[in-house]
Design a protein that fits this description.
633 residues, Amino acid/polyamine transporter I, six-stranded mixed sheet, two-stranded antiparallel ribbon, elongated, disordered N terminus
Length: 633
Amino acid sequence: MASVSQPAARVSTPPSRLPALTLGALGVVFGDIGTSPLYAFKEAFSGAHAIPMTTDSVYGVLSMIFWAVTLIVSIKYVSFVLRFDNNGEGGVLALLAYATRLTRRNPTMQWWVAVIAVFAASLFYGDAVITPAISVLSAVEGLAVATPALEHWIVPTTLAILVALFALQSRGTAGVGKLFGPISLVWFLTLAALGVHSILQSPHIIGAIDPRHALAFVVQHPHLAFLALGAVFLTLTGGEALYADMGHFGRAPIRVSWFAIVFPCLMLNYLGQGALVLRDPEAAKNPFYLLAPEALLLPLVALATAATVIASQAVISGAFSVTQQASRLGYLPHIPAKHTSESERGQIYIPQINWVMLVVVVMLVLEFGSSSALAAAYGIAVSATMLLETGLVAVVAYVMLPKWRVPLVIALAAVGFVELMFVASNSTKILAGGWFPLVCGLGVFTLLTTWKRATAVIRADEDRKRVPLKGFFEMLGDSVPTVPGTAIYLSSDPDAVPVTLLHNLKHNKVLHERILFVSIGTEDVPRLRDAERTEVEVLVPKRRYLVKLRYGFMEDPDVLRGLELLERHGLRFDLMDTTFFLGKATIAAPEKRGLFTWRRSLFRWMQRNSPGAAEYFRLPADRVIELGTRVTA
């Protein structure tokens, strides 16, 4: 089956780069799912929703883990979903941009696509704050296994690691990031070694991969199997990162990493934990660490902590990336991002997101106090995200592959049913903490949709007052005096007179000798080449120009750099002789309170607390004039 889009250069991996990219993928893509053995299997038999430990239940849970990972990760994500890229980029918002382009002729489907994708992206933030908390906590809890007297140091040590991790974000991870791959490789090989050592003592445990054990457990103990699904799902968390990080590595390195290293190492470790608890039921309190000889416990705690820091770094970077994409697609205000690497375009830093996440993560650690307590809050957001992503992929596949519609519908319906069961099982934990990521998701969803709706209202108001650019200067004639210099008006509608120019005429009653109307567009593709970025139309030779600057939804608009590219069109600028005119429209406060007038207040609050357009477009502050309008509709 061919990809549904034109493959980007980063998707087609040169054979010479495959080993390096495969190693890099281990540290970034698989950090989250790779640390699941620290807490996932333990939750089935010792968590808040523990099931009785019997041979049948251990075999049943292990069989469910093996086939859940095979179906959801190996088949759905690695073998199928990775085929659906937006010019090489993956992730739910990249898929939203692509699906929006495909469904333009069907407004109803387009609306549903947007709702599904935006809610899935919103739920990601709940996952993004829980992952660092549960991962680092579960690693540091090994201290209590090695030396019980250190148990009271678990929370302080966890907080110290997390604060240091977030504090270092502004410096980037380009240097230490080179160690992520090798450390992760050591981690996965350690998982395998610990598992094999236990399996060799109870080789019969390998039979647990037989799907009949899972089926028998479900049939004979449906209630227990339903409860166990919540723990089983913890082995899948991080699986969605396979798709989201495709743009950084490409399909081939992710697939090679998964099938050659990650999948077998994870399964060996889970089977080893199962064999251990059958030999010693008391080991269920922390089967991962109890797999290791006592002399190796502290080194294992150190390695596990390093692995969880890497997993946390990946999800923090993911939150920055999702925020940037949401801003580019019009669901958030313009949010400048600091690039922390000269070579890696995906390494960015957004201070506001970073510090908010740190505060929430610290609150989670203090409130829940243990990985077992946090596990109750973990699964619901990720399971719902996976289910929603399946629906979004189904829409894209249905539109793009009409010949495969029937088998695709059947296959995706089967996957969707399994994921729905995971959502249902995790919903039993809502009161125990599962409410937290749902509240986070609903809050972010409200922010995203409020901004999108408000900007649509402002755009509609501008359309009502629209003055066509064509013929405008002919209508003015020579009645308006001119002043020396260049004026650049930024406008969202390239065919209309900017409101800022009308205000300038109204109040100052002059025009500049040379005027450029610059519109900045965001395309449905991740990036554009410089040769595709600029388009110039001459309205009046040497005096009036219409300029279009285009960017991909993962690029930072840089107006000054864009103006430099206009030299190939014969336009040159003296910055000290140039004035930038920006407009800022806001929605007026409501005269009467109504059911949804709170959204106006929310939008006004978001607008007040968002960076200005001059900062976002990297314009020199002393060359900018900003003119505002108020929308009363």
